[in-house]
Amino acid sequence: MAEEETLEEIKAKYERRIRKSFKEKEPGKPQATAPYSPEAQPLTSREYKAFKKERMPHHLSFYEKFCNWSEKILRAEPEKKKIPELKEAIRICHLEVTPTGVMSASLLAPFLFALSIIFIAFIIPSLIMPGSGNMFFVLFAILAGLGIVIPIQKLPFFLANNWRMKASNQMVLCIFYIVTYMRHTSNLERALSFAAEHLAPPLAFDLKKVLWDVESETFDTLKESLDDYLRTWRKYNMEFIESIHLIESSLYESTEGRRLDALDKSLSVILEETYEKMLHYAHNLKGPLTALHMLGIILPILGLVILPLLVSFMPEVKWYHLFMLYNVVLPVVVFYLARNILSTRPTGYGESDISETNKALRKYRNILIPIGKEELRISPSVVAIIIFIILFIIGSLPLIMHAVNPDQDLAVLKEGGLQVINEPTHLDATFYFLGYREEVVSGGPTGKLVGPFGLGATILSLFMVLAFGIGIGIYYHFRSKNVIKIREQAKALEKEFASALFQLGNRLGDGLPAEIAFGKVAQVMEGTLSGRFFELVSINISKLGMNVEQAIFDRKRGALVYYPSNLIESSMKVLVESSKKGPLIASQAVINISEYIKQMHRVDERLNDLMADIVSSMKSQISFLTPAIAGIVVGITSMITQILGNLSLMLSALGSEAGGAGGDIGGMGGVLGMFGTGIPTYYFQIIVGLYVVQITFILSVLINGIENGSDKLSERYIIGNNLLKTTVTYVIVALCVTILFTLIAGSILTSVISTS
Description:
- Helix 15 packs antiparallel against helix 16 (319-343).
- Strands 4-3-5 form a 3-stranded antiparallel sheet.
- Strand 6 (437-441) and strand 7 form a beta hairpin.
- Among the domains are: 2-36; 47-153, no CATH class; 164-284; 288-318 and 394-472 and 603-755, no CATH class.
- It has 27 helices and 7 strands.
- It is elongated.
- It is mostly helical.
């Protein structure tokens, strides 16, 4: 039944096209009926819907469903002047939503978000234990809900800008593929199809949509469809539009020489203007990056230095207040600033995740363990989750031990060494394992136990940071490690491939068939990656009896199986296509491809030089400075909290004795009122450590975006490596400094206790 319907659709479509061409009326309709309009009778295709479902990101599908659902629940119309801009953004990222749905979602989502926080943090605790609900979370939920209304309203613009950034990163390659194909076959439609085949989404999706709009009669000609698509880039990427127009103009040139000059000019235009725009971008990055560095690293760490003193004199400040500030608000603000910096990045020569376009490489996303002739595939997510759970449980041991036996603790006493004590605070102890103590407010104990403050709990809290840093780092590292190795091999081949293609073109120009030319070049370039590639092609031809196309593209034994690269694949496809027209045409096509690859490589190297100074300082911040400073701050905080906390308890005890004896001890009541309990070092260290992990993640995304544009594979690899190195560095520094400063604090307190 499905086949019959498909045939009927095809039949009806071509009948309408024929009638439109001859201006005939539809059967059974009066002559006055308006001619067929594609807008009135939109065509659909199962293939196109399946393609869109497969290629569109999953988060867009969720957002589309939520917007459409919100429009039914709460219908809110946007301002009329914003509707055209919203429609343009929706069209760019191919969303199936309306401006009304976007506005409705921007109001409903914050409401549901705030309501869920209030329900979890206030209503449920109040029902379980009356009076335990905290109004702070209610206020935070309301402010956070109001704060995300505008960002959610701008989400289509953010998605459209992200789409543009990904697409613009592929535009140099797009022009390269179109020009390369049109040098030997002057057919724009086939050249666009060739480019769409070798590019990754989203630009491949856009190009196929351009072709589809012609097929579905949304536009009468390819030029109209292409010009309509180029209008979306008029504000953002004029060099791409200029290059496409030069390519279009080559179709109308009267001589072959002028046609080829127009094609060459189109590629040089986008390469030169790309370099100029990146030059301005690099110069303008200094200010935003300085602001990001101050707001994301310097000011928060300076704040951490004075926080121990602040919270000791302000008992109203709790650990969850700092958590909301450092682990929720600040990371969101820093991430927003980082995305704004990346949104201004111009077109670049970027890479795509080859495991997305090549299904045979998807197995390399896993951890591969060879077992005989077979191999065991383990998902990185499974390993990461197991490691996370183990480290998280170890980090939670202080809370678990206190929940099991609230009054029991381990302590190092002045006399007697390590002993089990059954009281929350023992003033003769030098160190505690858990270190729960009575809360002190306005100089007097309240009888409520707070903590843990002990050295053992602080050390175990480092495992909580390891759980997040190592867990996430391992997932990203192993998911990208194998694939990045394959891509690096392919890129190493691409670097020397231009000279190899030039030699291949010369051999073809001498009149040698392609089957023999591959063997000749392989002998000359023996020992190189290019020589190995051509040798594989030659072996497949001579020993397996394959033709040139099979020797290169065969799914099991083809040379491209061992060197997966879209650039090399497209070059070889052009060679195969052009060789059908004769060896001289194939020779010229291959030589021109080699020159194009050299041009792109030169521009890419110049772009890397531009970004080197900017990126190097950020890398040093991530790798050492930030984790080292944060670790030192944690150690200092541990010492200050231990000294102030014990002094508070000592003064409280002395005050009680003085009050019982009828004395005042020099106005001790005023001094007692200055001290509070402070924030437990267990929670403080977790807050600082998680902030280090979060800021490392955000800065890694920013570094990759500046260097490589929208390259998800490199992003995962950089995030994984940076998280593993930074987390381990932070934990080592924090552990050493905490133990050292705790020993110093213990000796100070011991001397104070002995003199008193």
